[in-house]
């Protein structure tokens, strides 16, 4: 979490790692014989927020969330090619089962009020997913991305370029507005929270897998191979 204040040789201590007992033991408390909880090892810096940006030890961070998935699905390699090389970024994609189950209550409500013209397109979209569910699973997916810079101006510039890349990635749409910017930023960290991003997408499994960073290796040979060939996605 603290890019400037963390050594490249640092690594977290896990519960089964041998450590020197520390602190004071109270009763049957075994805490002095265990490593500190992982959340305190990782999230150990104060944060300063300014709008939807936050600062950790002098490094500014910005977050975006995909609210409308790519309308013409593209590969992850295409997204990577759209982001300029000078922009630091990371992306977290959560893929979960039960898309139609999650939409069940909405579908039941819309079945009674689908005659209202503004709601008809929503009902049609859910009906389309219901038919797709008969052939392949419909999933729940969230996509969160983050970038950083040494100043607010730098992170704003990086967010703009990252937003443009996601918009060009099949015609999707993103947002940089969050009620809780710290929680939104934490959603870009792998395994940092039980929940996922705030904006849920409901793609069929085949389309969701196409968006994930699953690519082939650069060469079919082992390390002792004598021929290397570049792939179309630049590997």
From TrEMBL:
Protein name: TraU protein
Native organism: Pseudomonas cannabina
């Amino acid at each position: 979490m603290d890019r400037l204040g963390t050594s490249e040789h640092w690594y977290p201590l896990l519960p089964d790692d041998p450590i020197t007992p520390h602190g004071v033991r109270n009763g049957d408390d075994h805490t002095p014989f265990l490593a500190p909880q992982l959340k305190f090892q990782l999230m150990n810096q104060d944060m300063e927020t300014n709008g939807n940006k936050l600062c950790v030890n002098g490094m500014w961070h910005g977050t975006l969330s995909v609210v409308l998935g790519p309308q013409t699905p593209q590969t992850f390699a295409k997204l990577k090619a759209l982001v300029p090389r000078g922009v630091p970024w990371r992306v977290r994609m959560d893929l979960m089962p039960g898309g139609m189950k999650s939409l069940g209550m909405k579908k039941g409500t819309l079945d009674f009020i689908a005659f209202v013209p503004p709601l008809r397109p929503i009902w049609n979209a859910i009906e389309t997913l219901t038919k797709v569910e008969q052939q392949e699973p419909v999933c729940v997916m969230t996509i969160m991305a983050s970038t950083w810079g040494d100043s607010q101006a730098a992170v704003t510039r990086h967010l703009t370029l990252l937003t443009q890349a996601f918009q060009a990635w099949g015609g999707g749409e993103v947002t940089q507005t969050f009620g809780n910017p710290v929680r939104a930023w934490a959603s870009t960290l792998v395994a940092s929270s039980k929940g996922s991003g705030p904006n849920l997408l409901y793609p069929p499994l085949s389309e969701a897998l196409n968006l994930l960073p699953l690519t082939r290796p650069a060469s079919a040979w082992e390390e002792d191979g004598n021929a290397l060939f570049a792939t179309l996605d630049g590997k």
